[in-house]
Amino acid sequence: MRADKKHKKGKRWLKIIVLLFVLLIAGGGAYAYSVYQSLTTAVDTMHQPIEREKSEKRPETITLTKAEDPDPFSILLLGVDERQGDRGRSDTMIVLTVNPEMNSIKMLSIPRDTRTEIVGRGVEDKINHAYAFGREEMSMATVENLLDIPIDYFIKVNMEGFKDIVDAVGGIQVTNDLDFSEEGHHFSKGQLSLNGEKALAFVRMRKEDPNGDFGRQERQRQVIQGIISKGVSLGSLTRFDDIFEALGKNVRTNLTFDEMMDIQRNYRDAAASVEQLQMIGQSKKIGGVYYIIVPDEEIQKVQTELKTHLEINKTGQSSSPAPAGG
Q: Are 313 and 43 in contact (CB under 8 A)?
């Protein structure tokens, strides 16, 4: 298994949101106000409240606003490939726990084929099917059940949106280590310049890759990293309207604008230490379908580490007060 590679991808998803703040800070005077107006409009579009009952794993209410001793919280990052007429599946599922007192983030990438109970369906299936069955709410509930921790927020990125976002930043550069063709485009080895259409084909290819999904995840990481590199450059400031519009179309989160600002203000030091966690399983064919089976002891090990990081005691209570999730 090469699951450790998959666990190294999630930080790039979070940086898509951080990009908003970088562009805001970069402006000045009337120009900064113009950026601010575009930013708030984009965030309003991105904001997607969810309909779910308060989690029993989060009996108290957290707050992000405290300048002194703000509460630990968790985010589920979803990378979803939604095409016309298809509800999509969450091909990327990454859990981040953020602890401001420890100044650290723990990041767990969940293999998309992990066999687990789909909460609300009463069946065991691949965990990425939870999104197809019940979108963000069922994904959050299913991950909560698997990891035995509260999931406070979600951030969803539509993989189809790579095209718009790449074009908005003016194209990107990637390093390709596999010669292949996909959707009418040929990708040779070496440094490549990609527009939005080519970038989308680049991240979609899987069947020709000997590393399967892990190879696809690496290409996704490169495209996201390319977007970030172009997005934070001074040249991108002339494109902020296009960038915010693309993000507004393709990113959804139950975080509000104020909560994003609180995280940027009170939790920024935590980003200095990001630890990758592994959830190791074995492939197994059940009923003609391949799954990843994660042993109970492996799950319990990850649960304990995340609970400690979120400061949750044995009864499931949070040791410091935290959100209802939008």
A: no
The b/e string for 217-230 (b: 16+ C-beta within 10 A; e otherwise) is bbbbbbbbbbbbeb
Backbone angles phi, psi at 74, to 5 degrees: -130, 150
Domain definitions of the chain by residue range = 3-167+244-310
231-285 residue pLDDT tens = 555 454 556 667 777 777 778 888 888 888 788 778 877 777 778 787 888 888 9
Whole-Å CA distances, 87 to 9, 117, 129, 220, 247: 24, 20, 10, 20, 20
Q: Is 3.30.420.590 the CATH classification of the domain at 3-167+244-310?
A: yes
CA distances from 145 to 4, 56, 148, 216, 298 (A): 23, 10, 5, 27, 15
User: pLDDT by residue (tens digit) across 173-199?
Assistant: 888 888 888 888 888 888 888 888 898
